[in-house]
Amino acid sequence: MRTDSSPGTLPAREHLPAGDAGTPVLDVVIPVYNEEKDLPPCVRRLHEHLARTFPYAFRITIADNASTDTTPLVAARLAAEMPEVGTVRLEQKGRGRALRTVWSASDAPVLAYMDVDLSTDLNALLPLVAPLISGHSDLAIGSRLARASRVVRGPKREFISRAYNLILRGSLQARFSDAQCGFKAIRRDVAQVLLPLVEDTGWFFDTELLVLAERAGLRIHEVPVDWVDDPDSTVHIVRTATEDLKGVWRVGKALATGSLPLDRLTRPFGDDPRDRELTGVPHGLARQLVGFCVVGGLSTLFYLVLYSAFRQAAGPQTANALALLVSAVANTAANRRLTFGVRGRGGAVRHQAQGLVVFGIGLALTSGSLAALNAAGDSPAHSTELAVLIAANLAATVLRFLLFRAWVFPDRTDTGPAPTVPVPMAPAPTVPVPTAARPAPAPYAWPHQAPTHLHATETTTSATTPLRPACPHSTDPGDTR
Fold first, then answer.
1. Which residues are registered as beta bridge partners of 26?
2. pTM confidence score
3. CA distance 479 to 443
4. Which residues pair with 186 in a beta bridge?
5. Would the pLDDT of 6 be above 60?
6. Is 438:51 a contact under the CB 8 Å cutoff?
7. Which of 153, 199, 288, 364 has minimal Cβ neighbours within 10 Å of its Cβ?
8. Which of the given ranges, 94-103, 147-156, 377-386, 394-403, has the highest pLDDT on average?
9. What are phi and psi of 362, to 5 degrees?
């Protein structure tokens, strides 16, 4: 799992400004492999739909994944026929590799892709990209599993799709509904910093991109779609499912160990200038309170279970000390990762040591409560002991949160202004004002008289836009999809 990404945080989302009429706003990528028959009707239908309904300038890019038939020649003819169509050829297969390559080099502020079979109704395309143009969302996906979606496909594919999304929800805590629908879009500024973190070059690329974006707090917009299954699909279901499960394990491991710098993808609260003028407000206080309460509630239940177990073989003070010690270690580790967002192993020992000091304070409170209870009466009931311990733990919890926030896991950004690290981004292209007559688009950045041959380890440069792989070390010779 890569950890190299552009430093800094993303700027606030803003509505793309109106400006030059010839600048493409949307770049739709169509990854293909041996699609000489389906490619012409797909591109012509998509081009007609965009020219008729899309209010901004657009581009269609055919990404040829090392086809062995006449697909490159067909793509070149389509590019020569329609000025808004271009073609790029890669000598290695992999849908993720194709999307990464084209998206990384594109100058359009909104990037999208769809499958060549056009299983998704094109009427969903404008709702898909509109939230990205307006600045409301960072990514957008079509969902076949939303309640408003209308889907025609066999029971086998339906079962596999729903089972896969259940796996994502259970293992990676994914909240989006459909990871593999071939109908997605992303803002270019987000893609520039998110793509270097995505390792997969095949079919798991979509899932990995969405999981990392969601964990980083980026906003994902879902659009219900009408979708008809392609009976001639060449996707190898068993091989794809195996690779996806491997990807789930790899991403889950990286997230659990905190090896991904997802904090570099955070956005400010909003683009209202008033949000930037607020000073002295603790960052993430509400989120930290919610996380701490959840962890605290689970820790209290864990503590009570341990206390009841230890009480069978020891006195109340010993049982309380042992239960509190074990639960305190688990509580510190959970709050470190989930509440205060500290990732990696750096400082873990120091945090646990400080957590033990906090544990000592909690031990003093709970032990003192038990001592007072025993002094008040002989042999108090077990239920009474538990009630007193709950009250004492509530008081200790409030103190624990304050100590965690101010001492164990302080917000270092509050101590002074942090050095700003600029995010290397190209100037945002401008968006044309919709008019009755569509102006001619700017010359296409890719050479479209003949297919462009792009190797994973080479750099091909066109007249106006450099075309280079985002991750030159990414190779997948065994990818047969």
1. 58, 110
2. 0.58
3. 34
4. 111, 139
5. no
6. yes
7. 364
8. 94-103
9. -65, -40
| CB distance 346 to 318 below 8 Å | no
**pLDDT tens-place string over residues 197-228:** 899 888 889 999 999 998 888 899 999 999 88
Q: Give the pLDDT score at 42.
A: 94
Q: State how far Cα 470 lies from the chain centre.
A: 18
As a whole number, mean pLDDT of residues 159-186 equals 85
CA neighbours closer than 13 Å in the CB half-sphere of residue 80: 9
Triad 467, 472, 475: Cα angle to 5°: 120
Give the Cα separation of 290 and 267 in Å (integer). 20
Residue 463 confidence class, pLDDT cut points 50, 70, 90: very low
Residue with tokens 């890019």: 61
* Region for 315 from its dihedrals, namely left if φ exceeds 0, alpha if ψ lies in -120 to 50, beta otherwise: beta
Residue 137 token pair: 């969302």
For residue 179, give both structure tokens.
Answer: 């990871």
Please report the DSSP string for 23-40 in residue order.
S--EEEEEEESS-TTTHH
Instruction: Say which residue the tokens 């470190």 belong to.
Output: 336
Distance CA 237, CA 162 (A): 14
